[in-house]
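Next comes a concrete protein, fold included:
___
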Amino acid sequence: MLRSPVRVLDDGDADELLALCNRDAVTNVFVAGRVAQVGLNPRRLGGQVWGYYQRGRLVSACWSGANLVPIEVVPEAVEPLAGRARRHGRRCSSIVGRADSVLALWERLEPYWGKAREVRANQPLMMIDHDPAVPPDPLVRRTTRADFEVLVPACIAMFTEEVGYSPVAGDGGAMYRQRVAELVDSGRSYARIDDEGGVRRVVFKAELGAVSDRVVQVQGVWVDPALRGKGLAARGMASVVRLARAERPVTVSLYVNDFNHRAVAAYRRAGFRTVGTFATVLF
C-alpha cells in the first residue's frame, strides 16, 4: 500500500512550515503568524495543517480550520490536498488564499461540497513597505477597552457589508465580540472615533487580522457610510501603516475585492501596490 504524501503536521514540523511560508511572506502571513504564536498542535491551533511531501521534503501545505488556506501549493499537491479535504468534510466557512491555488482546490471540491454562496475570484493582494504616500489622519489611534462598546457596532456593520450576513446571527454576537476584544487587547485595532456633542462615533476603523515577524495584514477596513468619498480611507490607512511600522519595519498588506473600486483607489493613494491576486470561496 502506497503511503499518502499528505499528513497532519505537528510541533516538530513548525520550523519547516515557517520556512515554506516565508517563500512568500505576504501571501502566507495568516498561517505564519498563527503557527509562530501557538505552534502546530491542533488543540492550540484550532485546526490542522496538512503537509504535502515530495521525496521527504515539505513542498506544500494547507491550513484547515474556520477557513481552508492553501500554502505554496504546487500543481502536484492539488489533488492530494483536495482529497484530504473531501475526506475531512467541509468544516470551513471559506477557502481563501492565492487565487490559482484556491480555484484549483475548489474545482475539485465543488462536486462534493456543493455550490458556494459566492466565489470572489479576483481580489488584488496589495502591500506597502515604506512610509505612506499621503499624510496620516492624526485622529486615528489604537483603540482601548474604553472604546469597545462604540467600536463593536462598526465592526458588525463592516462584517455584514463585506460578507453578506451578520456575525451575531448564530450566538447573539458572543464569539464575535470576543474576537473584537482580542484585537483591541492585543493592540491590533485602530480607529478614528469622533465625539460630537457627547455622542461618540466611529468614523474609520481597521484591524491587523494577521501578524507575523515580517508582515501584518490589514482587515476590516470601514468608513462610516455617511462620510465616504471624503478621503478618510486613504488617510486612515496611512495612519495604520505608520502605526504598524512604528516599532519595526514590517510590510503592511491587505487584499480587497476587485469590484470595490473606491477602496482599491484609496489604498493606492495611501501608497499600496498590487503584488498578487487572492480568491475567496464563501459558503
